[in-house]
Hints:
The complex is a heterodimer. Chain A is an alpha+beta fold. Chain A contains 7 helices and 6 strands; from the N terminus they run αααββαβαββααβ. Chain A is globular and about 65 Å long. Chain B starts with 6 loop residues before the first helix and ends with a helix. In chain B, helix 1 packs antiparallel against helix 2 and helix 2 runs antiparallel to helix 3.
Amino acid sequence: MTNSSVLRDKSIVGSPLVHLVCMAVLLFAFWMLLSGNTEVKFVTYGILTSLIATWVCYPLLLVENTEGSRKYFIFGIHPFKLISYFFWLLWQLVLANLDVLKATVSPNLRINPCVVRFRYMADNPMAKVILANSITLTPGTVTMNVTDDGVFEVHALTDGAAEGLEDPSGMPAKVAWLLGQEFTFEKMGRDY
Amino acid sequence: MIYGIPLREIIAFALMGLGLVFLIGSAIGMLRLPDFYSRVHASGNSETLGTALVFLGLAVYNGFNDASFKIIVIFLFVFLGNPIGSHILSKAAYKTGHPVWTKKSAKEVEAFSKRAGEEEN
């Protein structure tokens, strides 16, 4: 069986058993939320399907780092850190949205689009994914391309958005803190 | 209802109204911005907060039950899925060599889109 070997795999960061149990419990909670039915038959179905889905999907949800020496579970994020990051991101979203709204509604269209390039690397490949997704989610910046060696090409709508991108203590540091990782950050200039 | 004031409904309508402001702003941006990439900003991103506020307003209006949890879950999926759509659109345009509008290259981009329009016809 592939899964018993997953349980003994030493290259996975964190405990595979904890990951499996948390995922099964979350899936079952989602099932209960959607069904809203507490009959024994439906609860049994829910337990069985969440266990089977966890068993089948867990090996597919592991990502390797660039050297291939370690495997990370995609959802292996500390829940309290995730909630804190979520609310911080919401607040950034409001600020950036007001900025873009002011720029687009103003009579002389105060925009200055440019392509910002920078390199961002961390051991966990999820750091790049979460950073790219958060950058795209924030108005005024859209990730156009991310290469394997960590070069981000980001389209920024206003000058303020471009400056915010080039600040390593902002979003890059927050994402690294979320995943408990060291990171390297390097500016590569802007194209106007 | 506290002292006869429908507090929950007022909060819900305030949230939904604020969401509408952002949605209208994104529609204005869609019409006014010059090129493809900056329109992706308007259509894809500014919409996220508008949708989020409208969903939050609906959840507040609905009160504390399983339907509002489902609304929150929908909002979370929009939150995760919307940036992926914007990213794929702009990545496809960038890889196929669509020029980026800046203050310097404005004329070239206009010529490019004119040429593309002629090829289509």
